[in-house]
Amino acid sequence: MIRAILTDIEGTTSSIRFVHDVLFPYARKHMADFVHCNAEDPRVVPLLNDVRLEAGEALDLDGIVAQLIAWIDADRKSTPLKALQGMIWESGYQKGDFTGHIYPDAAAQLRNWHAAGLQLYVFSSGSVQAQQLLFRHSDAGDLTPLFSGYYDTRIGTKQDPAAYRAIATAIGMPASEVLFLSDIGTELDAAVAVGMRTTMLVRDGSPDPSDTHRQVSDFSAIDPLGGS
């Protein structure tokens, strides 16, 4: 029996194009100003130090900015980068520069599942702050009341079974009662390794007949209460 749904964001609830065509360029454009203007902010100082630590160099502020932009261009899953991006995106959302894209079928089903008593959680490589911002300022309105929790790379990488085991423990239920939704096969493999149920979202292109995970084109084809 499925009691909880754990969902990815990029390529699953939301378009990859929104992340790569809107969010990443916005953070890239505003990174230098943000770092220089907030270099002494108590929330930012440890993140800048983490960038130095991860880069393995005693970087000055310009060096930090250059490193962060290089990581953005490489789509690096860096925890301090994701946290800093989230702070920049918060300003963008608040100014109304953009809203968080969410597929209509995803918004509808998330609401249906919540109303049916299922617990909803998010696991994304983006920071928890970035996740909450996207759902709070989504095209479909504020969806954050639907979710019981959010997880990012601080709990582990998305290809590591240990991350899914830790999430199941944090949720407080057997992994077998959790359905994980993603568009990435290696992430789904990691979830299966600890006993989670899985479904792959194929938003663009055709299903891969060689993949062992159930594949659907949108959330309307998922019926966790009926076992699929």
Radius of gyration: 18 Å
Structural class: alpha/beta
Element-level helix/strand string: EHHHHHEHEHEHEE
Shape: globular
Give the DSSP E fraction (strand runs of 2 or more residues).
5-15%
* Number of structurally distinct domains: 2
Say what the CATH topology of the largest domain is: Rossmann fold
Number of helices: 8
Overall description:
- The chain has helices spanning 16-37, 45-55, 61-73, 79-95, 104-115, 128-136, 161-171, 185-193; strands at 4-7, 119-123, 147-151, 178-182, 197-201, 214-216.
- The N and C termini lie close together (10 Å).
- Strand 4 (178-182), helix 8 and strand 5 (197-201) form a beta-alpha-beta unit.
- With 228 residues, it is α/β, with parallel strands linked by helices.
- The mean pLDDT is 93.
Offer a concise description of the structure.
This protein is an alpha/beta fold and 228 residues long. It has eight helices and six strands; from the N terminus they run E-H-H-H-H-H-E-H-E-H-E-H-E-E.
